[in-house]
Design brief:
Helix content: 25-40%
Shape: globular
Number of strands: 13
Largest sheet: 9 strands, mixed
Strand order of the largest sheet: 5-4-1-8-9-10-11-12-13
Radius of gyration: 18 Å
Distance between the termini: 32 Å
Structural class: alpha/beta
CATH architecture: 3-Layer(aba) Sandwich
Number of domains: 1
Oligomer: single chain
């Protein structure tokens, strides 16, 4: 089995600050690093480090060869990442002393994906595989439609949030993953509570509050407590959670068990500074929580 990810590939430029800047405020950064990121790339790395096969579908610019190479080094299939005549996506990330972040994103090549290319990219996908996409690229509808025709489980991670984008994707989605803020925005925008949405499963991450799983067919809601860790940086934690969740489902785990593993991976991720480059390996997750 495999996970097929239509997702962004970004250069993350991370600045450590004493606090997040106020409007008009100039701050000197305490440190700076450039690494691999983007919600899509983060999820692909998380899937690979959780032990599943993952194919990344996306685009970089002429400046993005190092990101494609790094994904390959991390075990991600990169044959379906195109090089286009546009600067690669990149993000400016500010992280404060509490681990909270502020992000400025320039999508670049991530919005230059050929919709027809996403369908071609799924030519080797088989029924039972998993397809996932987010809101940092274009061509989500074409991708999800093609995935549905091939019998793939379709997951949609609703970030960066747009109620119009989510409304368009919902009829093509089997599993919706979003955070608490996005969930509230979706309920307001759709004027319906989450359990009434036309999607089989909804997983809402709640940060330190844990996680909520809604199975809409039966109207059941299950809550999961969050593992307790010391927070260093929350950047990429949600993507790590989603990647691990999909890898666990790909490996045959039931949803509750998959959520438990994904929560542990996300929790370990917030103890680290960085994004795709520091997503934990499966053995690290298991060893870390075996100690407690």
């Amino acid at each position: 089995m495999a996970v097929w990810n239509l997702g962004s590939v970004n250069a993350d430029r991370v600045y450590r600050l004493p606090h997040l800047p106020e409007p008009g405020e100039t701050l000197a950064a305490q440190s700076h690093r450039t690494g691999l990121g983007g919600k899509g790339a983060n999820m692909s790395v998380a899937v690979a480090r959780a032990g599943s096969r993952v194919h990344h579908i996306g685009a970089v610019g002429p400046d993005g060869g190092w990101m494609r190479d790094r994904l390959a080094d991390y075990g991600v299939g990169v044959d379906r990442i195109a090089t286009v005549d546009e600067v690669s996506g990149h993000a400016i990330i500010a992280v404060d002393a509490r681990g909270e972040n502020q992000i400025i994103l320039y999508p670049g090549a991530n919005l230059a994906i050929e919709p027809a290319g996403t369908e071609i990219a799924l030519a080797d996908a088989t029924a039972g595989d998993i397809a996932v996409c987010q809101n940092e690229t274009n061509a989500q509808a074409a991708f999800l439609e093609a995935a549905g025709l091939r019998g793939l489980l379709r997951c949609y991670a609703a970030a960066p949030f747009s109620v119009d984008a989510v409304a368009a994707a919902l009829p093509l989605t089997d599993l919706l993953v979003l955070n608490a803020v996005e969930a509230a925005q979706l309920e307001l925008g759709m004027d319906r509570p989450l359990p009434e949405l036309d999607v089989a499963d909804i997983v809402v991450t709640l940060g330190a509050g844990g996680c909520r799983w809604i199975r809409t067919a039966g109207g059941t809601v299950r809550e999961f407590a969050a593992p307790r860790v010391e927070v260093v940086d929350t950047t990429g934690a949600g993507d790590t959670f989603t990647g691990y969740l999909l890898a666990a489902l790909d490996q045959g785990m039931e949803m509750a068990q998959a959520i438990g593993l994904a929560q542990k991976a996300g929790a370990l991720m917030v103890t680290r500074l960085g994004t795709a480059d520091v997503i934990p390996e499966r053995v690290e997750v298991e060893n870390y929580f075996a100690r407690g």
